[in-house]
Amino acid sequence: MTVSQCKGSFVTFEGIDACGKSTQIRLLHEFLRKNEVDAICLRDPGTTAISESIRRILLDNKNSAMSSWTELLLYEAARAQLVEEEIRPALAKGAIVLCDRFYDSTTAYQGYGRGLDLDIVRRANEIGSVGLTPDLTFFLDIDPRLAVARKREIGIAEDRLEAEGVAFQEKVRHGFRELQKAEPQRVSFIDGHRAIETIQLEIQSIMMPVIS
Ligand code: TMP
Fold this sequence. Notes:
The protein contains eight helices and five strands; from the N terminus they run E-H-E-H-H-E-H-H-E-H-H-E-H. It has helices spanning 21-34, 49-59, 68-92, 103-113, 118-128, 144-154, 166-182, 196-207; strands at 9-14, 39-43, 96-100, 136-141, 187-191. A five-stranded parallel β-sheet has the order 2-3-1-4-5, sandwiched between helices. Helix 4 (103-113) crosses helix 7. The two termini are 12 Å apart. Bound molecules: thymidine-5'-phosphate. Residues 17, 43-45, 75, 100-101, 105-106, 109-110, 161-162 line the site of thymidine-5'-phosphate.
């Protein structure tokens, strides 16, 4: 498939921890680059120096005393920096921006997971995203028990959020599912239990209208 032209678009990837989104972003990025589409990959929280510093605070297991409100505001602060420093300039240049998580994660983790008031979380998201909304979001849905098995297989140490356990991830998964039902046009439901290649082909086909 040859892709000759593209317009700036903001595409986000969401799901519980170890749902496979990082692999899918990498494969999609490779596909776009092979087709000479200007695309960049970012992660939220992170990417910029300031946002990466905030990420370290957020994920540090030593910070078990962190209040859910502090957590909410730190995610929003990291995001505001990412939007201003990276996302908006890239979109202005016409690039496709692939972002590993964005404000839907805040709704799912801090809203549904931590139980913060959903309307306050929505308002915080507006501030943190500086009014920016994804054009397209992929929600990779997997059973949290599969996520735990994957993490064990890879042998990675759990960060502060991952250490919350399966019951927390169940609440977060429920949050993502509710979000997808509320905004089916923007948020594509992707069954993450299938083979990596099958999922990637589905993602690429959904991306085609974005790549004109
Ligand atoms: P990552 O490992 O997928 O980059 O995400 C880091 C962790 O931060 C992950 O456990 C999900 C969590 N998170 C939130 O709790 N709220 C948010 O707004 C975001 C973006 C991530």
